[in-house]
Write a structure and sequence with these properties.
It comes from Aequorivita antarctica. The protein has 177 residues and is α/β, with parallel strands linked by helices. Helices cover 52% and strands 12% of the residues. It is globular and about 45 Å long.
């Protein structure tokens, strides 16, 4: 099975692209569990993410990915994975990331990472907090991919251009498989 991860800083079009790609390839996509988890936490307690949330978020992301992958034969689109959680954890908590997350996040379980660049319009919401740090975050995300030696391609441009480039990349993977 080919597993594609949309990966990158907040508000760079990952969810939009995940939905478009899943529709184009008539497959399922894995949503970002962290967003759902943190929105529920905010709605019920008016609290944002804390270190104590990291393990439940990781477990939830893996659970939903495993459940959805049971219904897929050849292509799974993921709107994030644990490597993104690792990067954010280390960024927000001065290098801290639970060992369980680090171990799982650094497994080479994906065919390609599509790294979304920060040339999309910023969309404010309660869970997004770094509109002026997106270039810095992009560099951190890319550095992590290089450190892990994971295969990736950068997606830049407007929505249509990103989609077309992603399709070209995925089509090439499907031909090889």
């Amino acid at each position: 099975m080919i597993k594609v991860v949309l990966y990158g800083p907040e508000s760079t079009g990952k969810t939009t692209l995940a939905k478009q790609l899943a529709k184009h390839y008539n497959t399922l996509w894995v949503p970002e569990f962290m967003r759902e988890y943190l929105q529920k936490k905010w709605n019920s307690k008016k609290e944002l993410v804390s270190k104590e949330d990291l393990i439940p978020i990781a477990k939830g992301q893996l659970k939903i990915e495993n459940e959805i992958s049971q219904h897929i034969e050849n292509l799974l689109i993921c709107d994030t994975n644990l490597l993104e959680l690792k990067v954010y954890s280390e960024y927000y908590y001065d290098g801290f990331c639970p060992l369980e997350i680090k171990n799982e996040a650094t497994q080479d379980n994906y065919s390609i990472y599509l790294l979304t660049y920060v040339d999309t319009p910023w969309e404010q919401d309660i869970l997004r907090d770094r509109p002026n740090n997106r270039k810095e975050m992009f560099r951190i995300f890319e550095a992590e991919l290089k450190k892990q030696n994971f295969p990736y391609q950068v997606l830049k441009g407007k929505e249509k251009e990103r989609f077309e480039n992603a399709v070209r990349i995925i089509d090439a993977l499907l031909k090889k498989n």
